[in-house]
Amino acid sequence: MPELAQIAGSFGHLLHEAGVPVTPERSARFATSVTLAEPQSLTDLYWLGRVNLITAHDQVDIYDRVFAQVFRGIVDMADFRGDSSHQAPASAAPTGERRPGDPERTGESNNNPRGSSATPGARDENEDGTEEASMIAAMSTDERLSNKDFAAVTEEELILIRKLIEQLPLVPPMRKGRRERTNTAGRRLDIRKTLRASYRTGGDPVKLVKRARVPRPRRIVFIADISGSMEPYARVYLHLARGGVLAIGAEAFVFATRLTRLTRALSITNPDIAYRKAASAAPDWSGGTRIGETLKRFINEYGRRGIARGAVLVIISDGWEIEDPALVRTSMERLSRLAHRIIWVNPRKAVASFEPLTGGMAAALPYVDTFVSGHSVQALEDVVRAIRSSAVDRAPKLEPTAKPIGLSHAQR
Question: What CATH class is the domain 220-388?
Fold first, then answer.
């Protein structure tokens, strides 16, 4: 079960995205009020949040919708049926129940019964712990999906997994910028601004203006394998790449037998249109895999022109190569000289007996800085953590420990 601070923070974040200017201080105040008041019903929780998180009457409708989104699956609606003196908010209860503060309803319409397909069955008056059981059940679903392999999820579970991925904080590593800006902690003296400031003190440079190089975020580049063996994972990482494109200006590429740039397609705000354009832009979806030729084309057409220079490359592939692995080794060697760090995500690494013996993987591994599995939401956190920690210097490369084994397409 999540901590109260996590629930309050997520609730405030969703309200902020929906248009209510909720600050971290208000979210903390909401969590404190819940701890002190110890609400016994959904109505109590509703009003605690409404008092602490919104500041204008026109924000009530937005608050009601987000409240329903967050707490409908956590709190059992059956707790507020029957003769209870507390009534659930309209936004968090099925059609027919009233919002706190509305006039009481004198009866129930046959066309609008209290309850729906999302409402649990009738609750025994002597039953205890229903609310706690509902909360644990909702959170256990997230925990189960967090550890489930992407290749084994259903379409319904994929939608829930995408919501979990949206909560992952994708933070790019920082680098020293080339330009200098005024900075009180800087070490270089800005003589021009210092002399200009001295005009106010009769030509005496009392105030020394200093400059420093401004940190800049490093570019993140996603290169995802969409061949047949990687298709279950590619659809998840396409969602992560779109989040990176929208949030931090990342670059997104996919490949099977050819390289396709999807940055422009994934930058569309509407997710359905974005994924539809991305699918139509990559005609080789679920095809074979030419890693070496793909990386060579990426370097020649994009990498040397600046996209890969000093960037963090995130390559998502299982390493199966239908052509000569020597081209993979040559391309990875060139990429290692261009990029700041290379992160390779291979879902097959999650298997305990995994050994990087396939031709492409064995050829690429000596030039990889971080090697992770990323086969589930929990493992995806390792990918996000590796991206965030890529500001450190690259470790020296090791010599290949296994001889690459070239596999034909039929052997895949």
Answer: alpha beta
